[in-house]
Amino acid sequence: MKTLVLAVIGHVDHGKTRLVTALTGMQTDRLAEEQRRGLSIVPGFAHRSFSGGVIDFVDLPGHADFVRATVMGLGGAGAVLIVVSAREGIQAQTHEHLLLARLLGIPRAIVAITQCDGVAVAEQEEVARSVRALVQDGPFEAAPILCCSARTGEGISALLSALETVLAQTDGAGEQQGFWLPVDRVFTVPGRGTVVTGTLLAGPLAANASVTVAPSGVALTVREVQTRGAGHAQVPAGSRVAVNLRGAGSDAVKVGDVLCAPGAGLGSRCLDVELRDVDGVRPVQHMEKLRVLIGTAQTVARVRRGTGRAARLEFDTPMSAFAGQRAVLRRLSPGQTCAGIKVLDPVPTARWDKAHRAVVEAAAHGPTRTIAAAYGTRVIPLAELARLARVDESAVQGMLGSEYVAIAPGLLVSRKRARQEEHALLSALAAYHQAHPLRPVVLRDVFKGKLALLPYLETELNGRGLIGLDHSGLWLAGHNPIEEMSNEDRQLFDAAERALLQGGARPPSVGNPDFEALLLHEGRAVRLHNVALGQWVMFHRRALVDAAQTLRESFDGTFTTGQARALLQTSRKFIVPLLEHFDSTGITKRDGEVRRIAGDWRQR
Prior knowledge:
Elements: E1 2-10, H1 16-24, H2 32-37, E2 44-50, E3 53-59, H3 67-74, E4 79-85, H4 92-103, E5 108-114, H5 121-135, E6 145-147, H6 156-168, E7 180-182, E8 185-189, E9 193-199, E10 205-206, E11 210-214, E12 218-227, E13 230-232, E14 234-235, E15 240-246, E16 258-260, E17 268-277, E18 289-294, E19 297-305, E20 310-319, E21 326-331, E22 336-345, H7 354-363, H8 368-374, E23 380-381, H9 382-389, H10 393-400, E24 404-408, E25 411-414, H11 415-435, H12 454-463, E26 467-469, E27 474-476, H13 481-484, H14 487-502, H15 513-521, E28 525-530, E29 535-540, H16 541-554, E30 558-560, H17 561-568, H18 572-585, E31 588-591, E32 594-597
Helix pairs in contact: 7-8, 17-18
């Protein structure tokens, strides 16, 4: 069964409340002051069932002093019923309410020319023509315009038929994932506790659901959810709902807060938005402070503008919104509606610089590919792109195709950028090898600050067999310093290796850092750290095997560090890291001050 929230708007005293009563049989002015003054102060609520579903009527105040209440009611509406008196015609709040409805993106409307009893047909037709001129060139240009009288019942049947047609055109509500309920009333029911009401912009919302109060982050549970006075296990999006909350203290939730799914509604002190100035009104200025009416909340923000429709709102306290949500900007004094916004990114993390403004501007105009293109060759945060495009993260790669590659979880880059850095890396490796032919690897520090995609490129190019890599660095595939050495260098290298091997457990310094790196890279030598002395020492790998064999043959049981040092004719500089290496590789096992041979040294 379809549901539609219908906001009833128009100038004060044009008969909105009386018309709603005629359509539903319900009185929407619930406050004593409203009934005494005959003036709506807060939104009133009624409903009527049709063959295709239910319409929830939100009767909004028509006085200029209650614009916030009007925006609160319009925020969840799927259509508007525009009420214009046949006696007075279009008035100031008729213009204001129509402007608010347009800025908030409401897609459909019906116009009711009320108070037609006692008004000549020619006068009714004149008012209808003026209304048609008012709504032309906008979303309501095809809205039906019907004359009626709530007092006599004239035209009410035709108006009900038009409302049923609008209900049939309803196609769901909300762009937000999970439920989203801006709170417009908070009260306490004896024996039940805190109850909040609002229009469910996204859903469904179920009894016993866990909810978060945004932006405060307070966690609560739904005890019961009602719509139109009846309890339900679950209510769909687009419904007027009342929610009884479990665990809510007197100050846990207030008007302007949002009930949303856990993990949603993250508060942010800024919103990136698409901003549209109101025609005929002074445009919003860069760094101007304005009142923001969003959902049921009202606050103040400073506006940073871009070159087009891109803008950022900066708040003193966190705000919660969802991508695609619409809101209204008004000047502080005198109060004047000056712009409408659509939220593009509710939790922006990038700086408001020229590059990011271009991305936000693209999000105000184009689809996912257009937004991605605005990043140029910069790395694209997947979550940010998905928010700006208002699509699921899982769908982004499919929309972009092969033009973009994932360089890490949550990060994309254009294939053009990836190819540029791939070429730069291969060229840099070739140049380094040419300049330092004896060095087996290129340390990663060489590329620090030059290749942002290095981790991705290492995996990608190694997988394609173009480079080799290990913990120490990387090299071009096929680079083999030993094979490419000159005869003179080969003789020096072999002599250095022989000296290291013959040094046994008391090895000499190799002296040549290129030879040291090459011996380590080839696995012929091992570098060990003497922590106490803060020194690194290098052993030939075969010398370590020989040392282990000597210990095994000489000690049947345990031995001390001093005994091992004497046996191997070395010093503490070498014996301490050597034995610690044997401990870590399982050749020896330490027990206090003594050790024993525990493993096969030939496998180490």
